[in-house]
From TrEMBL:
Pathway: Carbohydrate metabolism; tricarboxylic acid cycle; isocitrate from oxaloacetate: step 1/2
Species, as recorded: Mesobacillus campisalis
Superkingdom to which the source organism belongs: Bacteria
Residues annotated as catalytic: 257, 308
Reaction catalysed by this enzyme: oxaloacetate + acetyl-CoA + H2O = citrate + CoA + H(+)
Alphabetical list of PROSITE patterns matching this protein: CITRATE_SYNTHASE (PS00480)
Full protein name: Citrate synthase
InterPro entries, per the entry: 2-MeCitrate/Citrate_synth_II, Citrate_synth-like_lrg_a-sub, Citrate_synth-like_sm_a-sub, Citrate_synthase, Citrate_synthase_AS, Citrate_synthase_bac-typ, Citrate_synthase_sf
GO biological process, one term: tricarboxylic acid cycle
GO cellular component terms, semicolon-separated: cytosol
Lineage, top ranks: Bacteria, Bacillati, Bacillota, Bacilli, Bacillales
Family: Belongs to the citrate synthase family.
Keywords annotated in UniProt: Acyltransferase, Transferase, Tricarboxylic acid cycle
Pfam families assigned to the protein according to its UniProt record, in alphabetical order: Citrate_synt
Amino acid sequence: MTVTRGLEGVVATTSSISSIIDDTLTYVGFDIDDLADNASFEEVIYLLWHRTLPTGAQLEELKQQLASNMALPEEVLAHFKMYPIDTVHPMAALRTAVSLLGLYDEEADQMDEEANYRKAIRLQAKMPAIVTAFARIRKGLEPIAPREDLNFAANFLYMLTGKDPEPVAVEAMNKALVLHADHELNASTFTARVCVATLSDVYSGVTAAIGALKGPLHGGANEAVMKMLKEISTLENVEPYIRQKLDNKEKIMGFGHRVYRQGDPRAKHLREMSAKLTELTGEPHWYQMSTRIEEIVTGEKKLPPNVDFYSASVYHSLGIDHDLFTPIFAVSRVSGWLAHILEQYENNRLIRPRAEYNGPGKQDYVAVELRG
Ligand SMILES: CC(=O)SCCNC(=O)CCNC(=O)[C@H](O)C(C)(C)COP(=O)(O)OP(=O)(O)OC[C@H]1O[C@@H](n2cnc3c(N)ncnc32)[C@H](O)[C@@H]1OP(=O)(O)O
Ligand SMILES: O=C([O-])CC(=O)C(=O)O
Protein backbone atom coordinates (compact mmCIF):
# COMPACT_ATOMS: atom_id res chain seq x y z
CA MET A 1 0.00 0.00 0.00
CA THR A 2 1.20 3.52 -0.73
CA VAL A 3 0.22 5.94 2.02
CA THR A 4 -0.44 9.54 0.92
CA ARG A 5 -0.48 11.52 4.17
CA GLY A 6 -3.21 14.13 4.20
CA LEU A 7 -4.37 12.75 0.81
CA GLU A 8 -2.08 15.38 -0.80
CA GLY A 9 -2.48 15.38 -4.58
CA VAL A 10 -5.06 12.58 -4.50
CA VAL A 11 -7.92 13.17 -6.95
CA ALA A 12 -10.99 11.77 -5.19
CA THR A 13 -13.84 12.86 -7.45
CA THR A 14 -14.80 14.76 -10.56
CA SER A 15 -16.77 17.98 -10.06
CA SER A 16 -18.17 20.70 -12.30
CA ILE A 17 -18.48 23.29 -9.52
CA SER A 18 -15.10 24.98 -9.05
CA SER A 19 -11.54 24.42 -10.18
CA ILE A 20 -8.03 25.40 -9.13
CA ILE A 21 -5.63 25.10 -12.03
CA ASP A 22 -2.20 26.77 -12.01
CA ASP A 23 -3.21 28.93 -9.05
CA THR A 24 -6.31 30.22 -10.86
CA LEU A 25 -9.65 29.72 -9.15
CA THR A 26 -12.84 29.52 -11.18
CA TYR A 27 -16.46 28.84 -10.26
CA VAL A 28 -18.04 26.94 -13.18
CA GLY A 29 -15.42 28.46 -15.48
CA PHE A 30 -15.84 32.07 -14.27
CA ASP A 31 -12.62 33.58 -12.94
CA ILE A 32 -12.86 34.49 -9.26
CA ASP A 33 -11.50 38.00 -10.06
CA ASP A 34 -14.37 38.60 -12.46
CA LEU A 35 -16.95 37.35 -9.94
CA ALA A 36 -15.41 39.26 -7.02
CA ASP A 37 -15.57 42.52 -8.97
CA ASN A 38 -19.01 42.07 -10.51
CA ALA A 39 -21.26 39.40 -9.02
CA SER A 40 -23.75 39.44 -6.18
CA PHE A 41 -23.53 36.56 -3.70
CA GLU A 42 -27.02 35.44 -4.75
CA GLU A 43 -25.81 35.13 -8.36
CA VAL A 44 -22.91 33.01 -7.16
CA ILE A 45 -25.23 30.73 -5.18
CA TYR A 46 -27.30 30.23 -8.32
CA LEU A 47 -24.17 29.61 -10.38
CA LEU A 48 -22.85 26.96 -7.99
CA TRP A 49 -26.20 25.17 -7.76
CA HIS A 50 -27.21 25.36 -11.43
CA ARG A 51 -23.82 25.72 -13.22
CA THR A 52 -25.08 28.78 -15.10
CA LEU A 53 -25.57 32.43 -14.19
CA PRO A 54 -29.24 33.28 -13.55
CA THR A 55 -31.42 35.39 -15.81
CA GLY A 56 -32.95 38.44 -14.11
CA ALA A 57 -36.15 36.50 -13.39
CA GLN A 58 -34.28 33.48 -11.99
CA LEU A 59 -32.22 35.75 -9.77
CA GLU A 60 -35.30 37.51 -8.44
CA GLU A 61 -36.93 34.16 -7.72
CA LEU A 62 -33.88 32.92 -5.79
CA LYS A 63 -33.63 36.19 -3.83
CA GLN A 64 -37.27 35.93 -2.92
CA GLN A 65 -36.89 32.28 -1.89
CA LEU A 66 -33.90 33.11 0.30
CA ALA A 67 -35.48 36.18 1.89
CA SER A 68 -38.69 34.34 2.70
CA ASN A 69 -36.88 31.37 4.28
CA MET A 70 -34.50 33.28 6.56
CA ALA A 71 -36.53 33.34 9.75
CA LEU A 72 -35.65 30.67 12.32
CA PRO A 73 -38.07 28.34 14.11
CA GLU A 74 -38.84 29.57 17.65
CA GLU A 75 -37.45 26.26 18.97
CA VAL A 76 -33.97 27.10 17.65
CA LEU A 77 -34.04 30.58 19.21
CA ALA A 78 -35.23 29.10 22.50
CA HIS A 79 -32.39 26.57 22.35
CA PHE A 80 -29.78 29.36 22.07
CA LYS A 81 -31.06 30.79 25.33
CA MET A 82 -30.16 27.51 27.06
CA TYR A 83 -26.50 27.46 25.97
CA PRO A 84 -23.71 28.26 28.44
CA ILE A 85 -23.13 31.45 26.46
CA ASP A 86 -19.92 32.49 28.20
CA THR A 87 -18.07 29.45 26.91
CA VAL A 88 -19.84 28.40 23.70
CA HIS A 89 -17.95 29.29 20.53
CA PRO A 90 -20.31 30.57 17.81
CA MET A 91 -19.04 27.83 15.46
CA ALA A 92 -20.15 25.23 18.00
CA ALA A 93 -23.50 27.01 18.30
CA LEU A 94 -23.83 27.06 14.50
CA ARG A 95 -22.95 23.36 14.21
CA THR A 96 -25.55 22.47 16.84
CA ALA A 97 -28.20 24.80 15.40
CA VAL A 98 -27.89 23.33 11.90
CA SER A 99 -28.28 19.85 13.34
CA LEU A 100 -31.26 21.07 15.36
CA LEU A 101 -32.87 22.66 12.29
CA GLY A 102 -32.96 19.20 10.77
CA LEU A 103 -35.28 18.09 13.58
CA TYR A 104 -37.82 20.74 12.58
CA ASP A 105 -37.67 20.09 8.84
CA GLU A 106 -40.32 17.57 7.87
CA GLU A 107 -38.41 16.86 4.66
CA ALA A 108 -35.09 16.25 6.44
CA ASP A 109 -34.90 12.59 5.41
CA GLN A 110 -36.69 12.92 2.08
CA MET A 111 -34.02 12.17 -0.52
CA ASP A 112 -35.54 13.12 -3.90
CA GLU A 113 -33.83 15.88 -5.91
CA GLU A 114 -36.59 18.47 -5.44
CA ALA A 115 -36.76 17.98 -1.68
CA ASN A 116 -32.97 18.23 -1.43
CA TYR A 117 -33.02 21.49 -3.42
CA ARG A 118 -35.72 22.93 -1.15
CA LYS A 119 -33.59 22.03 1.88
CA ALA A 120 -30.60 23.72 0.25
CA ILE A 121 -32.59 26.96 -0.06
CA ARG A 122 -33.80 26.74 3.54
CA LEU A 123 -30.33 26.05 4.94
CA GLN A 124 -28.59 28.73 2.89
CA ALA A 125 -31.24 31.23 3.96
CA LYS A 126 -31.12 30.36 7.65
CA MET A 127 -27.34 30.37 8.16
CA PRO A 128 -27.03 34.18 8.55
CA ALA A 129 -30.05 34.20 10.85
CA ILE A 130 -28.43 31.57 13.08
CA VAL A 131 -25.10 33.39 13.31
CA THR A 132 -26.62 36.80 13.97
CA ALA A 133 -29.31 35.56 16.38
CA PHE A 134 -26.73 33.73 18.49
CA ALA A 135 -24.42 36.76 18.40
CA ARG A 136 -27.22 38.94 19.81
CA ILE A 137 -28.73 36.48 22.28
CA ARG A 138 -25.36 35.97 23.98
CA LYS A 139 -25.23 39.73 24.59
CA GLY A 140 -28.71 39.74 26.07
CA LEU A 141 -30.21 41.31 22.92
CA GLU A 142 -33.27 40.10 21.02
CA PRO A 143 -32.70 38.57 17.56
CA ILE A 144 -33.70 40.78 14.65
CA ALA A 145 -36.01 39.45 11.94
CA PRO A 146 -34.65 39.57 8.36
CA ARG A 147 -35.99 42.15 5.90
CA GLU A 148 -37.24 40.94 2.53
CA ASP A 149 -36.14 44.20 0.84
CA LEU A 150 -32.44 43.70 1.64
CA ASN A 151 -29.98 41.54 -0.25
CA PHE A 152 -28.18 38.64 1.43
CA ALA A 153 -25.07 40.60 2.47
CA ALA A 154 -27.09 43.56 3.75
CA ASN A 155 -29.47 41.30 5.64
CA PHE A 156 -26.55 39.69 7.47
CA LEU A 157 -25.29 43.08 8.66
CA TYR A 158 -28.80 44.31 9.45
CA MET A 159 -29.68 41.22 11.52
CA LEU A 160 -26.39 41.60 13.40
CA THR A 161 -26.77 45.27 14.32
CA GLY A 162 -30.40 46.24 13.75
CA LYS A 163 -29.19 49.23 11.73
CA ASP A 164 -29.34 49.92 8.00
CA PRO A 165 -25.82 49.00 6.89
CA GLU A 166 -23.62 51.50 5.02
CA PRO A 167 -23.28 50.76 1.27
CA VAL A 168 -19.50 50.36 1.68
CA ALA A 169 -20.06 47.68 4.33
CA VAL A 170 -22.61 45.84 2.17
CA GLU A 171 -20.22 45.92 -0.79
CA ALA A 172 -17.39 44.49 1.33
CA MET A 173 -19.58 41.80 2.85
CA ASN A 174 -20.92 40.80 -0.57
CA LYS A 175 -17.39 40.51 -1.97
CA ALA A 176 -16.22 38.46 1.01
CA LEU A 177 -19.20 36.11 0.58
CA VAL A 178 -18.43 35.71 -3.15
CA LEU A 179 -14.75 34.99 -2.46
CA HIS A 180 -15.43 32.30 0.17
CA ALA A 181 -18.29 30.48 -1.59
CA ASP A 182 -16.52 27.43 -2.97
CA HIS A 183 -13.07 25.94 -3.23
CA GLU A 184 -12.95 22.57 -4.90
CA LEU A 185 -12.27 19.68 -2.51
CA ASN A 186 -11.13 21.57 0.60
CA ALA A 187 -11.37 19.75 3.95
CA SER A 188 -14.89 20.84 4.91
CA THR A 189 -16.35 20.18 1.45
CA PHE A 190 -14.69 16.78 1.39
CA THR A 191 -16.18 16.11 4.83
CA ALA A 192 -19.64 17.00 3.55
CA ARG A 193 -19.22 14.71 0.56
CA VAL A 194 -17.94 11.80 2.67
CA CYS A 195 -20.92 12.19 4.98
CA VAL A 196 -23.64 12.28 2.32
CA ALA A 197 -21.95 9.58 0.24
CA THR A 198 -23.35 7.14 2.82
CA LEU A 199 -26.73 8.52 1.63
CA SER A 200 -27.08 10.44 4.86
CA ASP A 201 -29.14 13.65 4.73
CA VAL A 202 -28.28 17.27 3.82
CA TYR A 203 -28.38 18.49 7.46
CA SER A 204 -25.89 15.80 8.50
CA GLY A 205 -23.58 16.76 5.61
CA VAL A 206 -23.60 20.46 6.51
CA THR A 207 -23.26 19.78 10.25
CA ALA A 208 -20.18 17.65 9.56
CA ALA A 209 -18.73 20.31 7.25
CA ILE A 210 -19.13 23.04 9.89
CA GLY A 211 -17.16 20.87 12.28
CA ALA A 212 -14.33 20.58 9.76
CA LEU A 213 -14.31 24.29 8.92
CA LYS A 214 -14.00 25.22 12.60
CA GLY A 215 -10.38 24.07 12.95
CA PRO A 216 -7.57 26.67 12.78
CA LEU A 217 -5.81 24.90 9.91
CA HIS A 218 -8.93 25.60 7.81
CA GLY A 219 -11.64 28.26 8.34
CA GLY A 220 -10.70 28.88 11.96
CA ALA A 221 -7.52 30.59 10.77
CA ASN A 222 -9.28 33.95 10.21
CA GLU A 223 -10.10 34.31 13.91
CA ALA A 224 -6.58 33.16 14.80
CA VAL A 225 -5.10 35.87 12.53
CA MET A 226 -6.99 38.58 14.43
CA LYS A 227 -5.82 37.11 17.74
CA MET A 228 -2.25 37.32 16.45
CA LEU A 229 -2.70 40.93 15.25
CA LYS A 230 -4.04 41.91 18.67
CA GLU A 231 -1.15 40.17 20.42
CA ILE A 232 1.37 41.98 18.20
CA SER A 233 -0.53 45.25 18.72
CA THR A 234 2.06 47.66 17.22
CA LEU A 235 3.89 47.93 13.93
CA GLU A 236 7.28 47.90 15.73
CA ASN A 237 6.39 44.63 17.40
CA VAL A 238 5.68 42.79 14.13
CA GLU A 239 9.25 41.89 13.28
CA PRO A 240 10.37 40.43 16.65
CA TYR A 241 7.05 38.62 17.11
CA ILE A 242 7.02 36.96 13.69
CA ARG A 243 10.74 36.14 13.70
CA GLN A 244 10.41 34.47 17.09
CA LYS A 245 7.48 32.36 15.86
CA LEU A 246 9.42 31.32 12.78
CA ASP A 247 12.52 30.50 14.88
CA ASN A 248 10.30 28.34 17.11
CA LYS A 249 8.94 26.60 13.98
CA GLU A 250 5.44 27.82 14.80
CA LYS A 251 2.94 28.38 12.02
CA ILE A 252 1.87 31.89 11.12
CA MET A 253 -1.90 31.81 10.75
CA GLY A 254 -3.28 32.91 7.38
CA PHE A 255 -0.22 31.77 5.39
CA GLY A 256 0.42 28.69 3.29
CA HIS A 257 -1.92 26.49 1.34
CA ARG A 258 -2.15 22.86 0.32
CA VAL A 259 -2.89 23.62 -3.34
CA TYR A 260 -1.70 27.16 -4.20
CA ARG A 261 2.01 27.54 -4.70
CA GLN A 262 2.45 31.11 -5.99
CA GLY A 263 -0.44 32.58 -4.03
CA ASP A 264 -4.15 32.51 -3.27
CA PRO A 265 -5.97 34.64 -5.89
CA ARG A 266 -8.59 35.65 -3.31
CA ALA A 267 -6.08 37.28 -0.98
CA LYS A 268 -5.45 40.37 -3.14
CA HIS A 269 -9.14 41.30 -3.07
CA LEU A 270 -9.21 41.05 0.70
CA ARG A 271 -5.94 42.99 0.93
CA GLU A 272 -7.47 45.82 -1.09
CA MET A 273 -10.60 45.82 1.08
CA SER A 274 -8.48 45.79 4.22
CA ALA A 275 -6.53 48.86 3.02
CA LYS A 276 -9.73 50.75 2.25
CA LEU A 277 -11.77 49.77 5.31
CA THR A 278 -9.02 50.21 7.92
CA GLU A 279 -8.43 53.70 6.50
CA LEU A 280 -12.16 54.49 6.71
CA THR A 281 -12.38 53.33 10.33
CA GLY A 282 -9.27 55.29 11.31
CA GLU A 283 -7.38 52.12 12.20
CA PRO A 284 -4.84 51.77 9.37
CA HIS A 285 -2.40 50.03 11.73
CA TRP A 286 -4.20 46.70 11.24
CA TYR A 287 -3.48 46.87 7.53
CA GLN A 288 0.06 48.18 8.03
CA MET A 289 0.85 45.37 10.47
CA SER A 290 -0.65 42.83 8.10
CA THR A 291 1.40 43.96 5.10
CA ARG A 292 4.57 43.93 7.25
CA ILE A 293 3.79 40.37 8.36
CA GLU A 294 3.28 39.42 4.73
CA GLU A 295 6.67 40.91 3.76
CA ILE A 296 8.46 38.92 6.45
CA VAL A 297 6.68 35.59 5.92
CA THR A 298 6.92 35.66 2.14
CA GLY A 299 10.56 36.79 2.40
CA GLU A 300 11.60 34.17 4.95
CA LYS A 301 9.38 31.21 4.10
CA LYS A 302 8.18 31.92 0.54
CA LEU A 303 4.66 31.37 1.88
CA PRO A 304 2.01 33.75 0.49
CA PRO A 305 -1.11 34.77 2.46
CA ASN A 306 -4.28 32.75 1.98
CA VAL A 307 -7.93 33.87 2.01
CA ASP A 308 -8.00 33.95 5.82
CA PHE A 309 -5.21 36.47 6.34
CA TYR A 310 -6.67 39.80 5.21
CA SER A 311 -10.26 38.74 5.86
CA ALA A 312 -9.45 39.20 9.56
CA SER A 313 -8.81 42.96 9.32
CA VAL A 314 -11.72 43.32 6.86
CA TYR A 315 -14.27 41.78 9.26
CA HIS A 316 -12.76 43.65 12.21
CA SER A 317 -13.23 46.91 10.30
CA LEU A 318 -16.89 46.03 9.76
CA GLY A 319 -17.25 45.97 13.55
CA ILE A 320 -17.79 42.22 13.71
CA ASP A 321 -16.87 40.24 16.86
CA HIS A 322 -13.74 38.22 16.18
CA ASP A 323 -15.26 34.85 17.02
CA LEU A 324 -17.89 35.42 14.32
CA PHE A 325 -15.27 35.48 11.54
CA THR A 326 -15.35 31.71 10.96
CA PRO A 327 -19.16 31.52 11.16
CA ILE A 328 -19.26 34.17 8.39
CA PHE A 329 -17.01 31.90 6.34
CA ALA A 330 -19.62 29.14 6.89
CA VAL A 331 -22.49 31.46 5.88
CA SER A 332 -20.77 31.77 2.50
CA ARG A 333 -19.25 28.30 2.15
CA VAL A 334 -22.55 26.55 2.83
CA SER A 335 -23.40 27.50 -0.77
CA GLY A 336 -20.46 25.41 -1.96
CA TRP A 337 -21.13 22.58 0.50
CA LEU A 338 -24.71 22.37 -0.74
CA ALA A 339 -23.63 22.37 -4.39
CA HIS A 340 -21.21 19.53 -3.65
CA ILE A 341 -23.78 17.59 -1.61
CA LEU A 342 -26.29 17.78 -4.48
CA GLU A 343 -23.57 16.80 -6.96
CA GLN A 344 -22.55 13.86 -4.78
CA TYR A 345 -26.14 12.56 -4.67
CA GLU A 346 -26.38 12.81 -8.47
CA ASN A 347 -23.67 10.22 -9.04
CA ASN A 348 -23.01 8.67 -5.67
CA ARG A 349 -20.47 6.13 -4.58
CA LEU A 350 -19.49 5.44 -0.96
CA ILE A 351 -16.19 7.17 -0.07
CA ARG A 352 -14.09 4.71 1.84
CA PRO A 353 -10.28 4.83 1.55
CA ARG A 354 -7.90 2.37 3.24
CA ALA A 355 -5.43 2.67 6.12
CA GLU A 356 -2.12 0.85 6.28
CA TYR A 357 -2.13 -0.92 9.63
CA ASN A 358 0.94 -0.20 11.79
CA GLY A 359 -0.20 -1.53 15.20
CA PRO A 360 0.97 -4.70 17.01
CA GLY A 361 1.04 -8.08 15.24
CA LYS A 362 -1.28 -10.99 16.03
CA GLN A 363 -2.14 -11.31 19.74
CA ASP A 364 -4.14 -13.87 21.76
CA TYR A 365 -7.02 -12.78 23.96
CA VAL A 366 -6.33 -13.05 27.73
CA ALA A 367 -9.25 -13.05 30.20
CA VAL A 368 -9.38 -9.86 32.30
CA GLU A 369 -8.67 -11.64 35.62
CA LEU A 370 -5.46 -13.11 34.17
CA ARG A 371 -4.08 -9.77 32.89
CA GLY A 372 -1.12 -8.35 34.87
C1 LIG B 1 -9.53 28.55 4.03
C2 LIG B 1 -8.37 27.78 4.35
O1 LIG B 1 -8.48 26.70 4.84
S1 LIG B 1 -6.85 28.39 3.91
C3 LIG B 1 -5.73 27.70 5.11
C4 LIG B 1 -5.96 28.30 6.46
N1 LIG B 1 -5.00 27.79 7.44
C5 LIG B 1 -3.98 28.53 7.89
O2 LIG B 1 -3.78 29.67 7.50
C6 LIG B 1 -3.13 27.87 8.93
C7 LIG B 1 -1.65 28.04 8.64
N2 LIG B 1 -1.25 27.25 7.48
C8 LIG B 1 -1.04 25.91 7.59
O3 LIG B 1 -1.11 25.32 8.65
C9 LIG B 1 -0.69 25.14 6.31
O4 LIG B 1 -0.05 25.98 5.38
C10 LIG B 1 -1.93 24.50 5.67
C11 LIG B 1 -2.69 23.66 6.72
C12 LIG B 1 -2.85 25.55 5.12
C13 LIG B 1 -1.49 23.59 4.52
O5 LIG B 1 -0.84 22.52 5.12
P1 LIG B 1 0.04 21.43 4.34
O6 LIG B 1 -0.20 21.46 2.90
O7 LIG B 1 -0.19 20.15 5.05
O8 LIG B 1 1.50 21.95 4.58
P2 LIG B 1 2.40 21.63 5.85
O9 LIG B 1 1.68 22.00 7.12
O10 LIG B 1 2.87 20.22 5.73
O11 LIG B 1 3.56 22.64 5.60
C14 LIG B 1 4.67 22.43 4.70
C15 LIG B 1 5.86 23.19 5.23
O12 LIG B 1 5.58 24.59 5.24
C16 LIG B 1 5.57 25.10 6.58
N3 LIG B 1 4.39 25.94 6.73
C17 LIG B 1 3.18 25.76 6.16
N4 LIG B 1 2.34 26.73 6.54
C18 LIG B 1 3.05 27.53 7.36
C19 LIG B 1 2.72 28.69 8.08
N5 LIG B 1 1.49 29.21 8.02
N6 LIG B 1 3.67 29.27 8.83
C20 LIG B 1 4.92 28.76 8.89
N7 LIG B 1 5.29 27.64 8.24
C21 LIG B 1 4.36 27.04 7.50
C22 LIG B 1 5.43 23.87 7.48
O13 LIG B 1 5.96 24.10 8.75
C23 LIG B 1 6.19 22.84 6.68
O14 LIG B 1 7.57 23.09 6.87
P3 LIG B 1 8.62 21.86 6.94
O15 LIG B 1 8.51 21.19 5.61
O16 LIG B 1 9.90 22.55 7.19
O17 LIG B 1 8.14 21.01 8.06
O1 LIG C 1 -8.88 24.63 -0.31
C1 LIG C 1 -8.41 24.53 0.83
O2 LIG C 1 -7.67 23.60 1.21
C2 LIG C 1 -8.70 25.56 1.84
C3 LIG C 1 -9.25 26.82 1.26
O3 LIG C 1 -8.54 27.67 0.80
C4 LIG C 1 -10.69 26.98 1.24
O4 LIG C 1 -11.42 26.07 1.66
O5 LIG C 1 -11.17 28.05 0.82
